[in-house]
Amino acid sequence: MDGLRRDAARNRARILDAARDLAAQDVPLALNAVARAADVGVGTVYRHFATADELEETLVWEQLDALAEILRHAEPAQLEHVLTAHFTLLVEDAVFERVTARARPVLDRTATTRTALVGRLANLLERARTQGAVRADVDAAGVLLLMCGLAHAVRSAEVAADSVPARALLRVVLDGLRAP
């Protein structure tokens, strides 16, 4: 951890590990619960994360970075792959879904990354649109709304992202994005 003492870096790692474990069990990430799970004082958690929102955003930075890497090299023919990867992350990770759906990120890094991701998606959509593969009346923000809405519905129905019903619904959305 940049700029952290060794013990502080160790505590931060314990907090993040405990938060990941709780999130995997669908336990809400209340900072008191995270402190208990990490076996640190609640004050220690608050020194690293002022709010649960900050903790949640920090937990999904790796997923955001992975999505950025996919988008960085994506060609228009890979749009389906990009959207499927995003959909899968949204369905499989409730914290990622919450952070993605959040109107305004609380951490600068999250805001910057998210803005860059939307920009890359917009660029990819424009290149696909130029090739006649994507309809002209849907922008990146609209596509993200569709993915978030679909993922939320699938998650709420407790259906796996790779299940036949989830893939059929995703196919409807992907087919709907195609140019007429």
Walk me through what this model shows.
By secondary structure, this protein is an all-alpha fold. The chain folds into 2 domains: 6-52, Orthogonal Bundle (Arc Repressor Mutant, subunit A); 60-177, Orthogonal Bundle (Tetracycline Repressor, domain 2), CATH 1.10.357.10. The protein is built from 10 helices and no strands. Helix 6 (79-92) packs across helix 7 and helix 9 packs antiparallel against helix 10. The protein is elongated and about 60 Å long. The N and C termini lie far apart (50 Å). The mean pLDDT is 93.
Outline type: elongated
Residue-averaged pLDDT, rounded? 93
Structural class given helices, strands, pairing? Answer: mainly alpha
CATH class of the largest domain: Mainly Alpha
Q: Tell me what portion of residues adopts beta-strand conformation.
A: under 5%
Main sheet attributes: strand count, strand direction, barrel closure:
none
- End-to-end distance: 50 Å
Low-confidence stretches: none
Compressed to H and E, one letter per element, the order equals HHHHHHHHHH
The total beta strand count reads: 0
Number of helices: 10
Architecture of the largest domain, CATH level 2?
Orthogonal Bundle
Can you tell me the CATH superfamily of the largest domain? Tetracycline Repressor, domain 2
Number of domains: 2
Instruction: Please state the CA-atom Rg, rounded to the nearest Å.
Output: 18 Å
CATH fold-level name of the largest domain: Tetracycline Repressor, domain 2
Please bin the fraction of helical residues.
Answer: over 70%
